Amino acid sequence: MSSNVGIDTLITPPAMLGIVGGGQLGRYFVMAAHTMGYGTTVLEPDPHAPAGKVADVHIIAAYDDPSALDQLASTCAVVTTEFENAPAAAMEYLAAHTTVRPSPVALATCQDRIAEKQFLTDIGVAVAPYAVIITDADLAAASTCGYPAILKTARLGYDGKGQVNVATHRDLATAWQSLGGAPCVLEERLPLDRELSMVLARTADGRVACYPVAQNEHVDGILDISFVPATLPGTGHGEAAKLCRYIAEELGFVGVLAVEMFVVGSDVLVNELAPRPHNSGHYTLDACLCSQFEQQVRAICGLALGDAKLVVPGVAMANLLGDLWANGEPKWERALWQQAAHLHLYGKREPRPGRKMGHLTTTSATVVGATTLARRLRSQLTAD
Ligand code: ADP
Ligand code: MG
């Protein structure tokens, strides 16, 4: 491939980049875009949302507001989303008037667990054993599923929300009612040995860059700690990259894609896809030459993809949830005096329990050292 393939189709500064959704992921995207000289417009109904405060233009309107969509389409060279539940019809409307990356079809697949698992199964990628629950007949048919299981709403779930445990088949109907009888997948609860994720970027002309695999630990369904490099056999990273690249190609994906994986014994199962940068990829902000957000700008604008390699031997990321504010402002100085720690706060006003308010990244000569430091510093933030 010659180095200037596609050079005429690059989207270059000072073009306006549009983004649907104004959370912390959008905020980092906006900051990366501004560093490179692009303009940014954020569509987000919450006037206090983290990305809205830093964007050039904050359209405070519903995600499907027609005049907001017209403004985005007429002013932005490309529109993306950090909010995976952006209404499909809105993204299709935008795509009819400007470039939308990833495509509405790819977004729709990642937005719906039923479509996502069907897609993965169709392309031969292993997923946890599951059944689709849409009707009462599906409830009865699910008697042969493996229990205990987890019932997950097909749409709109995140951070473990929209999920209930189902101990036996007798508990299924009540569990389904508790989720409002919405379309769901019922998944066997697996004895996970490890949870992994890979963030990758892909351009419209098929170039791909994969970040190192992260290993993730969740508490109550919310990502707690993520560390890199993950504990993998020698060939593990290359195999994960091959799998994730294949998924992105089959999806025709353009932008940044995160693939969450379960390791059970010698099996690697794909849990879910996020059509955007990922919480477990935040380590790239402090430990890679090109962060996942700069990479997102590069991918959707058709630029050369940045170097995705890790520049430290070990890195860990600890999420900072609203719970840390229970007794007032955490003692930030305890993290800030450490050279190896990088504090990120998203500028959210209300520290509700379970809400992602920021994260702490730690680097070290070993991944174990980085992980231990991240845990220790986070607990010191609220210690007496
Ligand atoms: P979310 O959209 O909330 O991230 P996930 O499907 O990724 O939803 O589930 C959140 C977490 O719950 C997972 O990262 C994992 O820790 C746990 N989990 C989900 N499905 C299973 C399963 N089938 N078996 C065991 N643990 C699971
Ligand atoms: Mg998940």
UniProtKB/TrEMBL annotation:
Any GO MF annotation of the entry: metal ion binding
Membrane-spanning parts: none
GO cellular component, one term: cytosol
A single GO BP: 'de novo' IMP biosynthetic process
InterPro entries attached to this UniProt entry: ATP-grasp (IPR011761), ATP-grasp_carboxylate-amine (IPR003135), ATP_grasp_subdomain_1 (IPR013815), PreATP-grasp_dom_sf (IPR016185), PurK (IPR005875), PurK_C (IPR040686), PurT/PurK_preATP-grasp (IPR054350), Rudment_hybrid_motif (IPR011054)
Keywords: ATP-binding, Ligase, Nucleotide-binding, Purine biosynthesis
Nucleus keyword on record: no
Domain annotation ATP-grasp: ranges: 117-301
Pathway(s) per entry: Purine metabolism
Pfam families linked: ATP-grasp, PurK_C, RS_preATP-grasp-like
Protein name per UniProt: Unannotated protein
